[in-house]
Amino acid sequence: MPFSDRLYRPALLPSRTAWVLCLTAGVLAGCASTEPAAGDMMSTPAGGGTVVAAGGAPGTATGSPGPGTAGNGAAISGGTAAGSTASGGTAAGSTAYGSADGVGTAGTATSGGATSLPVAVTPSASSAPSAPSAPSASTPPAPAVEVAPSPNEGNAKAAFAADMAQRGLDPADVAAILKQARFSATVAKLVLPAATPSVRSWPRYRTRFVEPRRIKEGVDFWAKHGPMLARTEAKYGVPASIIVSIIGVETFYGRVTGNFRVLDALSTLAFDYPPQAPTDRSPFFREQLAQFLVLCKESGLDPLSLQGSYAGAIGLPQFMPGSQRRFAVDGDGDGKINLLASPDDAIASVANFLIEHGWKPGQPVFLPVRLPADPKPLVDGGLVPTLTWPQLNAAGARIINTDGTWSGAWTDWKMGVIDLYDGPTDTTEYRVAAPNFFAITQYNRSYFYATSVADLAAELEKKKP
């Protein structure tokens, strides 16, 4: 879900057992939103060491094989994260998926196709903090805690209904709808941190998205919706592979969009946010509930039947209601926006969201740059690129010869060095990210998420119909 309005967004991918869990318990896939402060999602750079796989020419690798690079795996179980970190967690309440072990290079997507870039894998001097836990897309068991409706819920709902008059809704109608909202103990528990924090692992995370089945079904989705994807890429300048990848990571191409009633999920988190949670996000969800009710009125949707993730994210791209109202577009030209039933609307909306958040048409996600032996000092863990090419060059970074697919304009943009930490091996993979990478992090404020999207897109480019 876009993160400005999408505070909690897990990315989903079902395994055989997880399929059942996903369909019965619901999911929160990534979620497009844009509100939580970037500081909430900052990464703590992992400790540095010596470069193990520093990369050579594009598509090759020098040094020892290391985790955190291109590869495929079919594992699907997912960890979770609460109050995620940019370098490896996912949004609180969002699903964390694994990665793949590989050797030396990592694929990236560009408007002209996919390219393999060298990456640096560095053993850390000390372990980076483990990512907190959040519900996975397969909705693992919720923490064993007691949750209950707030004793002040009734007064809070009455005040909320009265305030909705300022948004053009009849308070009596809002009150009547809220009376039919049901408290969900499952939703309340799923936004709590897991009892045992999971260990951050970029290779494990990547494997769960860049894996054979998701690649195959992504190619099938691309073939089925090829004309719309081509029109959208031409209009917005966002590659079809990136659009397909985001939808694939979020909802497995629309197969798993969540089966929580959105009204129940948002009402629970707006008025009964669990006091055990480390941060009170109820104001965020009250705003999303308000946006949801306005959205239903504007679009003629039934607020009592619409289903989504346990955080209230909706449709193939898992937009939170506020993001849907601000960034969703009518892709099929029928005069309505339906992110659940119209893949064309979902495709166009993902592209529009990225453009609105800084996507640069014609530019790559990762840059063809060889980093110095110890890239750690160049990592700031933020979600906004801050480095210039002269700064990186002065620090020892060098441009790698490319095949000319990319224009040299990327050297004029700000860029950033990202760290992808693997706790089990205490190593870190580093890449140089372009503004387009940071546009993807506005969809889900996680380095792991954005890199998985780019790597899956690269694999889809190789097999595109």
UniProtKB/TrEMBL annotation:
Q: Ranges for the Transglycosylase SLT domain?
A: 156-457
GO terms of biological process kind: peptidoglycan catabolic process
The region annotated as signal peptide is 1-29
The alphabetical list of record keywords is: Signal
Active site located where? 250
Q: Quick check: keyword Disulfide bond in the entry?
A: no
Instruction: Name the Pfam families on file.
Output: SLT_2
Q: CDD domains attached here?
A: Slt35-like (cd13399)
Family annotation (PROSITE patterns): PROKAR_LIPOPROTEIN
Ranges of Low complexity composition bias in the record: 120-137
Q: Which portions of the sequence form the region Disordered?
A: 120-151
This entry's Gene Ontology molecular function terms read: peptidoglycan lytic transglycosylase activity
Nucleotidyltransferase as a keyword of this entry, yes or no, is no
Report what the protein is called.
Membrane-bound lytic murein transglycosylase B
Organism, as annotated: Pigmentiphaga litoralis
